[in-house]
Amino acid sequence: MSRIGRLPISVPAGVQVKLNGLEVHVIGPKGELKKEFTPVVDIALEGGQVIVTRSSEAPSVRALHGTTRALINNMVTGVSTGFTRLLDVEGVGYRPEMNGAKLVLYVGYSHPVTVEPPAGITFEVDTRARQIKVNGFDKEQVGQVAADLREIRPPEPYKGKGIRYHEEKVRRKAGKAGKGKGKK
What we know:
Helices cover 20% and strands 36% of the residues. The chain contains two helices and 13 strands; from the N terminus they run E-E-E-E-E-E-H-E-E-E-E-E-E-H-E. The longest helix has 22 residues, at 59-80. The protein is an alpha+beta fold. The chain has a four-stranded antiparallel sheet, covered by helices on one side. Strands 1-6-5 form a three-stranded antiparallel sheet. The chain has a three-stranded antiparallel sheet with strand order 2-3-4, covered by helices on one side. The protein has two domains: 9-80, Outer Surface Protein A, domain 3 (Alpha-Beta Complex); 83-165, Ribosomal protein L6 (Outer Surface Protein A, domain 3, Alpha-Beta Complex), CATH 3.90.930.12.
């Protein structure tokens, strides 16, 4: 049995889980999410908990067991508390700003880069720490928007300038050798 898949998902107060065949619909204070799952995994709602069971011991079904449980847990967590991803902006003159709901990035281009948040996503900027917070209730969407922001100016290995995840460590490379070393 999958260690993750066998754990029941407790549904907090204020969150509704509706099962409609293969579709799971989760409604909470932050928003609502809907996802359709494969028929090889059974999903049941028993006593305020969602229980995921598998139909066979085939390797592909075993893999889907834990994945399905994790996805449903992320849906429940997202609509109740939400998800956040932190990005740091490093570099001389590099800075993020907010213009209404839009994020404006000054990251070394000849023009500022303006990013419109998709539905369900909000940005917060700490200008002193040069940090961007991506908030939302869909974990997949929060991660994708953070990856798209990082892609605007990925961190480079020589000076470390660019946009990086808060917990990311950038491996630094040595620059060119000093001047005058090859002449005699």
